């Protein structure tokens, strides 16, 4: 699952990972887009089925059928919008509460933008292990998906 607020770059991260390209014309996801891609990680090869949500589900996202079947989540925020980091923290906690033992990677996207690398997250409850990525440049994107795939394989989900 790709979770996060509207406009944080969930679709852009997924498309960069699957197609290795960035599309600058922003189109809001309506409902859910599904993509598949194989990823290599130290534990082996895994085919990921990516469910890219539209970001407007609110608190009832965890009641949807496709989230209940997810082996893990990538929860995305926008480095230039601190409010999305708060939402990321809330979604991560909600996912952990509803689906204990399933891995979730917290990702701060758009690190290519001014001062994004300097984003401090400690004061809003986001662990320092949040991954950083840029769908625009591709930096960190493969690592995000490989990290989640490795955690899924380790836990045999």
The biggest beta sheet reads:
4 strands, parallel
Per DSSP, the total helix count is: 4
- The CATH topology: Rossmann fold
Shape: globular
* Mean pLDDT over the full residue set: 84
CATH class: Alpha Beta
- The CATH homologous superfamily is termed P-loop containing nucleotide triphosphate hydrolases
Number of domains: 1
**Architecture (CATH level 2) name:** 3-Layer(aba) Sandwich
Number of strands: 6
**Estimated helix fraction:** 25-40%
The side-by-side strand order for the widest beta sheet comes to 1-4-5-6
Order of helices and strands: EHEEHEHEEH
Rg on CA atoms, Å: 14 Å
Which residues sit in consecutive blocks of at least 5 with pLDDT less than 50?
none
Strand content: 15-25%
The secondary-structure class comes to: alpha/beta
Distance between the termini: 14 Å
Task: Describe it.
- The protein has helices spanning 10-19, 65-68, 82-98, 141-155, and strands spanning 2-4, 32-41, 44-53, 73-78, 104-109, 131-132.
- A hairpin with a 2-residue loop joins strand 2 (32-41) and strand 3 (44-53).
- The protein is an alpha/beta fold and 157 residues long.
- The protein has four helices and six strands.
- The strands form two sheets. A four-stranded parallel β-sheet has the order 1-4-5-6, with helices on both faces.
- It is globular.
- The chain has a single domain, classed as Rossmann fold (3-Layer(aba) Sandwich), CATH 3.40.50.
């Amino acid at each position: 699952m790709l979770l996060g607020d509207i406009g944080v770059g969930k679709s852009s991260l997924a498309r960069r990972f699957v197609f290795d390209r960035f599309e600058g014309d922003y189109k809001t996801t309506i409902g859910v887009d599904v993509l598949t891609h194989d990823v290599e990680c130290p534990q082996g090869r895994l085919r990921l089925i990516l469910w890219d949500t539209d970001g407007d589900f609110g608190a009832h996202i965890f009641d949807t059928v496709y989230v209940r079947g997810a082996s893990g989540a990538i929860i995305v925020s926008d480095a230039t919008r601190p409010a999305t980091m708060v939402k990321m923290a809330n979604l991560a906690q909600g996912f952990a509460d509803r689906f204990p033992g399933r891995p979730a990677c917290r990702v701060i996207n758009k690190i290519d933008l001014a001062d994004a690398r300097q984003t401090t997250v400690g004061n809003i409850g986001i662990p320092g292990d949040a991954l950083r990525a840029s769908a625009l440049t591709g930096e960190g994107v493969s690592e995000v998906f490989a990290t989640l795939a490795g955690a899924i394989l380790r836990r045999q989900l």
